[in-house]
Here is the input.
Amino acid sequence: MVLQHTLKEITQIKGIGLHSGLDVTLTLKPAPINKGITFYRTDINSTPLRGLYSNVVDTRNCTALGSDSKNIVSTIEHFMATLYILGIDNLDVEIDNAEIPILDGSSRVFLDILKTKPLEAQEAPAKILRVKKEITYEDKEGCRITMLPSDKLEICFDIDFPSPIVGHQNFNNVIDYSVFEQEIAPCRTFCEKYQVDYLKSIGLIKGGSLENAVVLDGNTILNPEGFRIKNECVNHKVLDTIGDLYTSGYRILSKVIAKKTGHRHNNEILKILFSSQDNYEIV
Ligand SMILES: [Zn+2]
Here is the structure.
């Protein structure tokens, strides 16, 4: 039987928020059985935010949780993906600002820090959900995500970007620790320079730089070091998907087939998944 786990010790992670550019500190504390991942804004008078799909209020540039216009915690996805792969089921996350630190725009720093921290096995079975029936969410633009039954988490992801430096990329693999550590965790978020210019012009991504994103400009990549790995862009989309799927509150067993999808589609497919108990079983 796989048990639930939490961190054994209090751990801090510091960085800056992508949009605010402000310093932010995460204080991670052990949490009891069946509590799940819960975020607490310590800089404002707020209510706890459970890291669940039903609390997602914004999926435009990241996945954000919220209960009102002030009590928001955004950019949770790279952090959630790291908790998923390490098998951390229960954790209290105190945060002194509105954004999880962007760090290097990937999960590498979260993983490097958290993989060295001892976990505590807890006396309750891990919450595991097996998809029983094929479900699909597709939007008008032809972006589509399908979940099929499987006895493991497998992701097949296709992207097709106009930028020739990205173009068509595909990822198709079972998500286990070594695949995550080597092929997924290092993959940074990416965008086009014109998007950066626009977002900066409306006061967003104040913390954005070549230190925390891959920036493409036509045929060139502006980061002097280039891509970290081949297919870094599609693998980053896989990273986002793993983090978003963990807002189900379960370790999901499914073959996920995604084409050109993002945070919104990941949230919509979870709503469909939980809309009928015929779609899944808890194992
Ligand atoms: Zn991302």
Residues 232-245 form the longest helix (14 residues). The pocket of zinc ion is lined by residues 77-78, 189, 236, 240 (CB under 6 Å). The chain has a mean pLDDT of 96. The two ends are 10 Å apart (CA to CA).
